[in-house]
Design brief:
Oligomer: single chain
Largest sheet: 4 strands, mixed
Order of helices and strands: EEEHEH
Helix content: 25-40%
Strand content: 15-25%
Shape: globular
Length: 90
């Protein structure tokens, strides 16, 4: 699946900004003040969401501002849809 660069989310408190682009395998870079406590969970949610959408090769930069799992899934899905052009809501 071919990807172009895309972004979803904001840097507001309680949100997460997801930047996605072409890559080899799934490579997730996370910036978060709570990475020590929740970094593994955040990366897992990002990876599982992308795999569920059929995205297996991507570079993802995530800048977390305290987002809940449901927000992370929503932002990753939106970024993936923008990057692939594949509409998952149809």
């Amino acid at each position: 699946m071919e990807l172009k660069n895309a972004v979803a989310g904001t840097l507001e408190s309680g949100d997460i900004m997801i930047q996605i682009g072409p890559g080899e395998g799934l490579n997730v870079e996370l910036q978060s003040s709570v990475a020590a406590q929740f970094g593994r969970q955040i990366k897992s949610v990002i990876t599982e969401t992308l795999q569920g959408l059929g995205v297996t090769d991507a570079y993802v930069k995530a800048t977390d501002k305290g987002a809940l799992d449901c927000t992370i899934r929503a932002r990753v899905t939106a970024a993936a849809v923008r990057a692939t052009g594949k509409d998952v809501w149809k």
